[in-house]
Amino acid sequence: MTEVTGVTAAAPVTAVGSSATTRLLAESADRIDAPDVVLAMSRGGVRTVHTGGSAEAGPVAREQLHYELGSASKPFAGLLLARLVAQGRVRYEDRAADLLAPGLPVHPAVRRITLRHLLTHTSGLPGLPADFYPQAVPRWSTDPYGNYPADRVVRAFLRARPRHRPGTRWHYSNFAVSVLGHTLAAATGTPWEVLLHQQVLAPLGLEATLLRPGPDGTDATGHRRDGTPLPALDTGGFTAAGALRSSPLDLLTFLEAHAGGASGSPTDPTLAAALTEVTRPVLRRGWRHAHTHTLTWFQHPTPYGPVLFHAGATLGQQAFLGFRPGTGLAVVATATRRVHRADTFVATAYGLLTDTP
Length: 357
Known about the structure:
This protein is α+β, with helices and mostly antiparallel strands. Helix content is about 30%, strand content about 15%. The chain has 13 helices and eleven strands. The chain has helices spanning about 20-30, 75-85, 95-100, 110, 115-120, 130-135, 150-160, 175-190, 190-200, 240, 250-260, 270-275, 345-355; strands at about 1-5, 35-45, 45-50, 65-70, 245, 285, 290-295, 300, 305-315, 320-325, 330-335. Strand 9 and strand 10 form a beta hairpin. It is globular, with a radius of gyration of 20 Å. It starts with a strand and ends with a helix.
């Protein structure tokens, strides 16, 4: 069951029914300044979706548009790796360089980097390759990634000099997760887009989740902070780290599979095992090791139990995904304005996840 409420720039909030969840989402959306806002919650398989924003709604309902996920694409990469491990096709401790370029001489630290290191941001690699910035800076606000293709990402990895010994420090890295994507494609002999579709998107029924722009009129339009519209983002060779586009309804389905929603447990044992594996804490970091991580999610404690979440941002859009394992609670948020220092988007979405009984 899905309940949808909506607003346009010319109309006040109009609610369907008077449920506490409907009111909560509407009040929360008022705190987010963006041309398009979608807040969606699933509780035990019952969905409530609120749409709004400062722009007029278009011909396609906001909850059905494809939104750029940015780094919120990474949980999909994590689930894919976990499923391939469950199938016995790769191991977490497989060394990436051995799969990408067997026998090629590389720095000893690069040789030690495993698939687990790449996914958990413990590889020692920087956030982006050193030679990424000279070509990106002139196009930083429009197309920083498009001229840095997959083969260049792989070459940058194979000649890298990690800052730290793999497995010793946590440093968030789009570079590392992108290398993971290329490594899994090489290990399976299957292009990343096909592999993700076969192993994750199709089994979960995510028909509105794409790795490239959809048909005309089906993609949300991102905006700069001043409201200027932006073209669709081209992630170049950094596909696994941030290329996905998805609808809020598909994202709820993805999270329900993790949280124990209406879709129930997958019938395929390898997918069920992967969904369990990606919710298991694997490392701690920060002051007094206060920050907990699973293979692919950030984990925080709450009075209602642990929550797992990941946010993402592109040049003109934002996304937030979160759930409580085993409870059936999931939260999705999307917005079509670039993030800024005083932005309330992540805090608002996070509050829906952590403060809801």
